[in-house]
Design brief:
The chain is an all-alpha fold and about 500 residues long. The chain has a single domain (about 40-235, about 245-475), classed as MFS general substrate transporter like domains (Growth Hormone, Chain: A), CATH 1.20.1250. Helices cover about 75% and strands about 0% of the residues. Strands 1-2 form a two-stranded antiparallel sheet. α3 runs parallel beside α9, α5 runs parallel beside α7 (about 135-160) and α6 (about 110-130) runs antiparallel to α10 (about 205-230). The chain is globular, with a radius of gyration of 24 Å.
């Protein structure tokens, strides 16, 4: 029977218990036969496009932070101006993040992905024009900043997409893994930027080559999205929760989120985690160079922070897909991440201890990044059936706001050092800064956020309950009713 017939029956009987008037036993029997959920191979193509786009956008975001001193020399600007190349992402994401929530939940995944791909490519091209040798330095930096702003508009469109993709295209037992893969492609891009930027830029004259290299994946992602992303949703839903995705109208759903205590706690605490990650990634090179560590080593620490974190997120994603113990796993990871942040505040002030610094960065990443994709899934679980774009979007906006506050606050509490004999920072740019107080403040923020979440966060898994109720309706066969793979 056609899909519309299935949906008509589902709408008529889904809310009525079997045996009551309006839902005779024979109707339930027919409904069980009709509710066949299907998965499509196209979901993997969409996942690949979003992963590439997410990776490219984050590479563009943080491409200059690992080589901040050489960037400042090339453009003839200060380190504060270089930091603004990262901070502009956070500022722009706030107003455009609200618009993105509406685009995802009203216009759909296809519009969001294609629009973000074109903006991302356009921003990378404008950046490249800003470093061409025939453009003067007076014009170069404004063009670079303009390119960063365009890429920043694209960021929320692709950052908010993973949970939408997982909910609409993937079956229930693959949602956490799909969300993990697409979400972790963002820090993967940051990892690549931490490795590639110091490797590509040995002197200030190498900046144009680096910027050109980062434009390549942006162009490729745009081509793949434009040619291959043809639908926002599959013809037949992969799960019961996909049927009800975005069933809550946008503005009422937004109000509902702000009245949801569990969601608000998650938004604040995980938003603080996003802010801490942003500040840590953008300022790591400046924190370590004062005590004698090179740009290359700072880039390696940033890569370990993210690479080991991606491994942790992958392992936790597999565990969550099998057990659904969202809250317990996240609380443990929050506690361990707080301890690792304290350890970093201590060891980052020690000169000539590269192994110890690298090990602590790895632990911080392992537990901190494990929280990332699972918190996105938990945001959907505790707010269902509010649209996935809205529920994850508010978390990211809260994270961007806190990221701005943390970066400005951490830079404000630094002190100039009269003497820094071990400093590997570029003395021509600025007086070396003491980052002891900022790193301790960062650890304090992480610890407070972890304590609030562990003590006060409680929630029901509303989407899982919807799946369970559907399994009861269909005779306990929610997962087994999936049809074989189809090309879509």
């Amino acid at each position: 029977m056609a899909e519309s017939s299935t949906n008509d029956l589902a709408e008529e009987y889904i809310d009525a218990p079997a045996g009551q008037s309006g839902a005779p036993a024979e109707a339930w029997s027919g409904l069980r036969k009709l509710m066949q959920y299907k998965t499509y191979r196209m979901r993997w193509y969409l996942l690949g496009v979003i992963c590439l786009l997410n990776c490219s956008n984050s590479m563009l975001w943080l491409s200059f932070a690992p080589v901040a001193d050489k960037t400042a020399k090339f453009y003839g600007c200060s380190l504060d101006q270089v930091n603004w190349l990262s901070q502009v992402y956070l500022i722009i994401a706030i107003p455009f993040g609200i618009l993105t929530m509406w685009v995802l939940d009203i216009l759909g995944l296809k519009t969001a992905v294609i629009l973000s791909a074109w903006l991302n490519m356009l921003g990378s091209v404008v950046r490249y024009f800003g470093v061409l040798l025939f453009i003067s330095k007076e014009i170069g930096y404004p063009l670079l900043l303009l390119g960063q702003c365009i890429c920043a508009v694209a960021q929320p469109l692709v950052l908010f997409s993973p949970t939408k993709l997982a909910a609409v295209w993937f079956p229930e037992h693959q949602q956490a893994t799909a969300n993990m893969m697409s979400s972790m492609s963002n820090p993967l891009g940051i990892l690549l930027a931490n490795l590639l930027s110091p490797a590509l830029v040995h002197k200030k004259e190498d900046i144009p080559f680096m910027v050109g290299m980062y434009a390549v994946p942006a162009v490729l992602a745009c081509i793949l999205a434009t040619v291959g992303v043809c639908h926002s949703e599959p013809p037949t839903p992969p799960s019961a929760s996909a049927v009800n995705s975005t069933s809550e109208p946008f503005w009422p759903g937004l109000k509902k989120l702000l009245k949801n205590k569990a969601y608000v706690i998650l938004m604040i605490c995980f938003g603080a985690g996003i802010g801490i990650f942003t500040a840590f990634s953008a300022l790591l090179e400046q924190i370590l160079c004062v005590v004698g560590y090179s740009n290359l080593f700072a880039g390696l620490c940033g890569a370990l922070f993210i690479g080991v974190g991606i491994l942790g997120a992958f392992l936790l994603g597999l565990y969550i897909d099998r057990t659904k113990n969202f809250t317990e796993a996240i609380k443990i990871c929050f506690a361990m991440a707080a301890l690792a942040s304290i350890a970093f505040a201590l060891v980052s002030r020690l000169p000539n201890q590269p192994a110890l610094v690298a090990a602590v960065c790895s632990l911080f990443g392992f537990f901190g990044f494990s929280i990332y994709p699972i918190s996105m899934e938990l945001a959907v679980e505790c707010s269902y059936p509010v649209g996935e774009g809205t529920s994850t979007g508010l978390v990211f906006i809260a994270g961007q706001i806190q990221g701005i506050i943390f970066m400005l606050l951490l830079q404000a509490v630094t002190k100039q050092l009269a003497d820094a004999p071990l400093s590997a920072c570029n003395a021509e740019l600025d007086t070396p800064l003491d980052w002891k107080a900022p790193t301790l403040l960062l650890a304090g923020i992480c610890s407070v956020g972890a304590c609030i979440f562990i003590l006060f966060f409680r929630t029901d898994y509303k989407r899982l309950h919807a799946e369970a109720e559907n399994a009861a309706i269909t005779g306990g066969e929610s997962d087994t009713l999936q049809a074989p793979e189809h090309n879509g």
